[in-house]
Each structure stands twice: as structure tokens, then as C-alpha cells.
Amino acid sequence: xxxxxxxxxxxxxxxxxxxxxxxxxxxxxxxxxxxxxxxxxxxxxxxxxxxxxxxxxxxxxxxxxxxxxxxxxxxxxxxxxxxxxxxxxxxxxxxxxxxxxxxxxxxxxxxxxxxxxxxxxxxxxxxxxxxxxxxxxxxxxxxxxxxxxxxxxxxxxxxxxxxxxxxxxxxxxxxxxxxxxxxxxxxxxxxxxxxxxxxxxxxxxxxxxxxxxxxxxxxxxxxxxxxxxxxxxxxxxxxxxxxxxxxxxxxxxxxxxxxxxxxxxxxxxxxxxxxxxxxxxxxxxxxxxxxxxxxxxxxxxxxxxxxxxxxxxxxxxxxxxxxxxxxxxxxxxxxxxxxxxxxxxxxxxxxxxxxxxxxxxxxxxxxxxxxxxxxxxxxxxxxxxxxxxxxxxxxxxxxxxxxxxxxxxxxxxxxxxxxxxxxxxxxxxxxxxxxxx
Amino acid sequence: xxxxxxxxxxxxxxxxxxxxxxxxxxxxxxxxxxxxxxxxxxxxxxxxxxxxxxxxxxxxxxxxxxxxxxxxxxxxxxxxxxxxxxxxxxxxxxxxxxxxxxxxxxxxxxxxxxxxxxxxxxxxxxxxxxxxxxxxxxxxxxxxxxxxxxxxxxxxxxxxxxxxxxxxxxxxxxxxxxxxxxxxxxxxxxxxxxxxxxxxxxxxxxxxxxxxxxxxxxxxxxxxxxxxxxxxxxxxxxxxxxxxxxxxxxxxxxxxxxxxxxxxxxxxxxxxxxxxxxxxxxxxxxxxxxxxxxxxxxxxxxxxxxxxxxxxxxxxxxxxxxxxxxxxxxxxxxxxxxxxxxxxxxxxxxxxxxxxxxxxxxxxxxxxxxxxxx
Lengths: 437, 374
Hints:
The structure holds two protein chains of two kinds. Chain A is of the alpha/beta class. Chain A has helices spanning 12-28, 60-69, 71-83, 92-103, 125-138, 157-178, 184-207, 217-230, 234-252, 277-283, 293-297, 326-338, 349-362, 377-380, 383-392, 412-425, 432-436, and strands at residues 5-6, 35-39, 55-59, 117-122, 142-146, 255-256, 263-267, 287-292, 302-304, 310-312, 367-373, 397-402. In chain B, helix 5 (97-109) links the parallel strand 3 (89-93) and strand 4 (114-118). Chains A and B meet through helix 5, strand 5, helix 6, helix 14 and helix 15 of A and helix 5, helix 6, helix 14 and helix 15 of B.
């Protein structure tokens, strides 16, 4: 018996249903005369939404993660990518994705659905190159927006306008390659949905400050993913509001994710998707990962409140701002995204260390597990400096090597053994019932 | 004839400290070949490209995760070991995620007075990158002025741009002499000539280039040219490797490296607004793969070089874990092969295993030369 009561998340079924619908809609878009495009999870997906209500996308990172979760299929994809000569230390999502394309196998059944165009944004070395290859291989048009204009704290008009100007250019390009007339009202609607979904996700994460935490990070992975699929959609924004209400209810009624919660941790970077059992292993010690900069800030948009705490960024709508023009919508969308927590460390690891220490303090954490993720150079950028910074702040920190999408680079025994040592350092013994089991 | 370049390359720290003493200026470490050296030089400082020392080291593991390229770790090692104790300024023009970690860790752990991150655009293929980069150059200029308390005049910028252009033109002249059937210089000499230009005042470098050029025109090397090779890829100043390749029946006649032609190939075109002219030069230069999208503009440029220099084969060199080049090499190999140029792919670390690589190079040369054999 645990100290706290627990119960399954009621929104779980809807989360699964929405996700499957997303992948099915993409596959079947052409049957309904619709458009389908592919690009990254960070692409400004609200922009192609202005082409019509029958525009569907598939974002490469969550798709690569879905493939990674299916180990035999992932292995096939990796081998197909390697057979084409690609290095095996490249982004493992990208290699899974390319492999699925070469094998002509869709992770959700049937053949790989060829997109009509590629549309991406670029902050990591692999971003621009990923869809360059897809576009070449599939002989489809490609557009990419460079967002690497520095951290949000240094944003000025020139830097903002470099992004906004490319957004305008993207719209002209979309009209040209699809032959459709662009609808600004649909853009504005999508932009408002994105503000709502990404701010609400931050609200949900904030609720996890509660003790006991209403959500565990392993569950959060299945929830934040919607923001990486279609953060601009009404369905996702509405779903996050429903989810927020349920999580709020759990907080008010002390419904825990882990009945035996006695140690609160955070992780970092994408997890090794084929080995999410790491989180279940931690639970045997009563240790719960309540989130990470990754789950909170990959799509969640935050701001520092007057009292110094982190909270959901106030949306333009909450400020009473009415969006009426394309340019206004694009400026707000660029500014909103450039404040994304997971875009800051690309320029300086100290910015990430500061945010991580803020989470440690505000969410009352006991330690940090850093996944040295060989599959993602973007989120591993500066990670060793983060380790030093966290340790210098006196916060217990452990590292483990792995790969988010390539299970061949994960040594399960060694990782579990490192966790045992970390738990010992935190003075935790395996819970008796679990130890007996 | 190339002794001076070798001396500058090998004794880069002696030169830099002597330059500081002579001029009273500071040395500013530049972490990528996209750094606008002209602006730094116009401020009265010596821009110096940060390269490694090709020695095994164990000081960077705590700072940069081992999945990043050996070059970026070798560069950081130079700072952590105190080799640049005299250097007070560093800057990076944004490019790949690897080298920027050398910069951010250097800024954090090696004492400097001035550290500047220039947000160089990655999408250089959009026209919007031109005014944007100009604005970034202006911010950088202001930061340099604030650091030194001295204004950088337009006249100084123009003089600096002219000086850098002259250096590029002179190195082009030397490269021209590699096109003929008996190249006047070896690949090793060319590599050291360009690499030394990263470390010395362009005035000195230009003077030395002007001194050797007339002699070079009549120079006959006492060696067989053998197979004419091109080297292409990541950062590469591995002189041991080049020396080995040229000892087994080949001459490297041209390259496409950021330590070679990518660095100096295009000139600043003067069109009125000096800062815009400088920005245009960096936007238009032969791109690093990390900036070569959506269209592939790098490949036709490489092919043109291979044709102009009449090469028999291409060695594709990649720093281990260098993602941008890893994203280019398979399609580049296919592209060059389809255009009649055989390729050999080699992965580099801080030091390279010369024995095994020699076997591979010899086998490649045998294949390249097989038409002559049969």
C-alpha cells in the first residue's frame, strides 16, 4: 500500500485516440483531396494551416520516436539507413524516419505516405539537412525557416524580423507549390490555438509541483506529444484544457501518480524510447520523475512571473490583444516560439542550467538524471556543462548514456546499476514489496 | 621556399605574442571560418582561427560530451591547457553545434575579457539573410568598439577588407599554379600556406606570398606528380595525413575544406555600403554543409573545382561525429561518382592511424590508376 491514493488518468484513452487519429488522418489525407506535408515538431505548423482545413502533417521527431518504440521495425529502419551510407551517429529520429521512407513502411500501417512538400525550421545542424534529403528522395518541394537568431533575452527587432520575413516568404512559397490561395483567417485561428495549447501545457506541468505529483514523466510523454504533432490545432488546444482540469482535480484530491512518492527527480533530453522501463525501475525506490526541461519546455511556453517563479506565458488573447492581420499573427508567432525554453541552450549551456535549477527549486526536486543522448546532438549540446553547473549548485546529479531512437546504444544492465548507486547516494532503499518481487 | 609558412604554422603562439608586443593590439580567437576577420582587424586586433594541436588529450571530457567531433574538443583543449594564455578576446560566428561548444566552454572556463557570439544566419539562401547579417556585423562592431574604447572607422574597414581581399587573390594565384600537369606546389605546402594565414597579420602573409609567387612560377618540383587528388570535407589541417598521401604516388592539387578554399575562395565585392559588402561576402562564400540547404549549392562548386584542377580522384574527409558533413557525404559521393570522379571516404580523429590509412590510400590510388595499368 502506498501513502497516497492513485487512480488511472481519465484522459488517457482520449490521448491515445487523438494520436492515432493524427497519424491516420495524415495517411488518408489524399483520399479526401487534402494536402499532407512533413517537417519537424518545431516547425511553425500554424502557417500551412492557412492553406485550408484539409491540411495534415507528420512531424519527424515523434514519428521517429514511435518507430523507436517498435524495436524490430526500428532495427530494420536503422539498417536501411546505414545501407545507404549514413553514419550511425546521426540523429536517430532522422535515421528511423529515413529508414521508414526507404522501406516504404508506415509505422501506423501501410506504405510510407509520401508528403506533398517538406516544411521545416532550423536550429540544430540536422534540421535543415533532414528534409533536404527527404525532398530529394521523394522529389518534392522543400522550404525551411532559420530560427537560430540567438536566445530570447537578446531578441531585438532585426532578429525577430529575420524570422518573420522568412515566414512571409514561406506563405508565398506555399501558395506557389500548392496552387491554393492562402487564408489569413485560418492562420490567425491556428496561431491562437497554438498560443492556447502551448501555454496550457505549461499550466499542466506547473500543476506537477504538487506533492504528491499528479503525473509522472513517463505518462507525460504520451501527453506532451500532441503539442509536437499539431500544436496549432483546435483539437490539441481543447484536449489540453480538458487535461488541465483533470490534473487540477487530481491535485485538489491528492491523487498521486505514484502512491509511494518519496523522492522527486527530473530527467533531461528525450528518454531512450525503447527503455521507458527506466522510469518504472525508479518507482521501485519510490522515486518519481516529475518532468524535465524537455517535457516542460519542448513545446510548453513559459515566462518568469513577478515573484520570480516560472509560469505559463500569458497569451496575447489573455492580454486582450486582437489578432487581425497576417503580419501581426506572424510577429506574435515568431516571438512566442523564440521564447521556447528548449531553444535557449543552443547558444549557451548556462541558460539551460539556470532553467534546470529553477525547476529543481520550484518543483522541490531531490536530484537530476541526465540522459547523455547519443541520438540527439541538439538537446545534448552543452549537457556536460549542465552536469557541472547542477553539481556546483549542490544538487545530486547522475548521467547515463543511451540513445533516444537506437536501442543498440543502450546498456540496460549498466544503466540500472548506475541508478542503484544514485539511489544509494540519495539514501533510498528499494521498497520492501518491490524488493521481494 | 615555404619555410616561413611552416614556421608561422608551427610557432603560432610565438608569432601572436610578438605581434601583440609590436602593435599593442589584442589577439581575438575566432571559432569558425565564418568569423568576419575584417572587422576585428579594422579594430586593430589580430583575428586568429582556433585550431587544435593534434595531440591526444584528456581535459575536455568533463565539458563536451564524447559524441561531438574531435576537432571541437581539440580546440577547447588548447584553451584549457593554457596555450592561449595571452589571448583576451574570443568570438564565434554561428555555424555547427560542435564548435560552438568549444566557444561556450572556453568562455566559461578560460579567462577572457571579451567573448562574443555572432548570430550568423544558417539559411544563407534567403535574401533576408543579407540585411540581417549586416545588422549582426554592426552589433559586433559596436561590441568591439565598446571593448577597446576605440571607434572602428569606415576607412579602417575598407582598408581591412582590401587587405583581406588581396590575401585571397594572392592565394588564388598560388592555387592557379596547381592546375597544370606539374603543380608548382604540393598539397602539404598549400595546406600550410592557407592554415598559416589564420594566424598571422595579413600584411605579413601577403608580403610573403608576393615574395614567393615570382619564384613559384618557374618552380619544378623534384618529384613525380602521380595521381592528382582533391581533398574535401570537414575542418582539416592534418599535415601528417597529407604528407603520407603525397609520399605514395599522389599530389593533392585542390581542396574543399574550411581550412582551405572555403575560407578564402570568394572576395568582398565593393558596392557602396561596406558593412553590407562584408555581409554579402560571407553569405556568398562556398558554404559549410550546415548552411547548405534547401538547395545543394556546395556540390556543383566541388564538381567545378574537380574539373578545373583535372583531378583523378577525391578523398572525402570527415571529422568523426561531424553531423553536417555526415549529412553531405553519401549524396556527395554518389554525385561525384556519377560525374566520373572516384572517391575514398576516410574518417578523421584528432590523430589519424597513418598505417591503415596508407593501405587504403594506396588501394585507392591503384584503382584510380587502373586505366593506365591496363
